[in-house]
Structure of DUF885 domain-containing protein:
Amino acid sequence: MNDITSIDRPGPTGTARPVTDLADDHVRRLAELDPILAGDLGWPQGQDRLPDLSPDGTAAVVATCRETLDRLAALPAPDDPDERRCARLLTERLGARIAHAESGEPLRDVQELFGPLATIRTAFTLMPVSDESGWATVAARMGRVPEALDGYRASLAEGSRRGLFAAPRQVVRVTEQLDAWIADAGGRGWFAGFAGQAEVGAGVRADLDRNAAAAAAALHGLRDWLRAEYLPAADGTPDGVGADRYRIASRFWNGADIDPAEVYDWGWSEFRRLHAEMAVEAGRVLPGAGIREAMAFLDDDGGSTGVVEGGENARRHLQQIMDDTIAELDGRHFDLSGRLRDVESRLAPTGSAAAPYYTPPSLDFSRPGRTWLPASPDDRYPLWDLISTWYHEGVPGHHLQLASWALRSSELSTFQTSLVGAVSADVEGWALYAERLMDELGHHTDPGSRLGYLNAQMMRAVRVVIDLGMHLSLPIPADSPVGAGLRWTPELGREFFGRHVGGGDALADSELLRYLGGPGQAIGYKLGERAWLTGRERARAAHLARGERFDLAAWHAAALAQGTLGLDDLVPELAVLPASRSDVADSTAS
């Protein structure tokens, strides 16, 4: 899987797979435009380059999407289930991407977590650097950072010309993020610190040092331009995006058009349910204590779950959680053999957002899946709310799903089995479902650990309420403990989050910026979980109605073998999956 121009896809002799072939060709063409995407897949070509972040670069991606859709429309309607799902995914995903680009979003893409700057830096952390050749490629790519940032600045300047701005609080946060990157490594900058790890000869060392300095200078220039020119021009840009932009963004992240009123009301019902459960669990943690008091106790004391001092110790502990979970679940609830067992816990680089995250394996597994833990302000890591988080980020959450897709990448299209075509709500919904599954399987008998699980669920319910509320300026119900009878503002959203979700001020501040900078993304966790639960229960009911045993492990295997789906398609597809071991084996062998 290391050749960007050829994907070896074995299949039954004489089987025509025109949609899969088209999807693979689309991925190849995107990878030529975006070398970071190629690196994510494990393809080595172009790893000394960075994508064109200028308006011309966006236009080239849009043109590629349009051409693929035109070619798809000329194909006959497929009968094969995998082909049918692939055609649906291509149609929906490419249409959503075109609409997102043509609404002008890339021209005002200033945000801490999902923006181009974070993407560029993450790409360096995933590059293979086991030998001098790898570091030489890193050096060459570092030399392209100024060009990439010039293109990004050109896009923001074009947005400014059209009156399309990011909100000032997003700009302020990104300049602070750049401050941290620039100050890293004793003031030499993050790129110099990263390059300093290399044990290489004099020639490659000179290239690394020179290009790291050039990258640092480019970050300086961009930060100063954002502060001096862009930020004053953006003054007065509202934080909320309004109904039209929210509709486009929600489709982009979730693969569905949502009913904002229904989702908002449901989010409130989930908030109330979880608040009641957390009150009970808090009393088990600390008799007579309220929720906030119990969480403060766990932050300080750790309770029976404990506190780990130091990032490296925390990293090792989280690795052990994943290793133990794999050993316990394998053969009982999932097949976790072979390459699926290869997952690493890492420490996130300086200046990352406050929330942990996961990066998937390359398609050939030469780079393993990795979870990333951001540094805490005091370098202390209470475990009560990290255990469920690592079920989400690692196993059986993101790692199991995305690594399972990679295993099927020679059978399904690469578009279906990688983040190229992945629907955020499907991915995040599975990971949140995985957290709930671990609770269902009895992995939160400790009251601190279970309060951590409920806190993680509460954070996702709060996301639904305040993401919709802030962007659409929705009314706050009369029984709300914050802002009753008012309409949502960022200030009320921050107060609401801080009052009901544990994790501290840094997390609350980071989360608020995340929702405002990526409208519609945060609601996908709970919406995706709801879809996975609904699909599971409909599949169970169908099997029982036929007098058949419902095998949850078999259903999981079939579900993870489908590749990604948008929320428009997820429940119907999950509801009809086979749930017996022999049926699954038959369905995934073809």
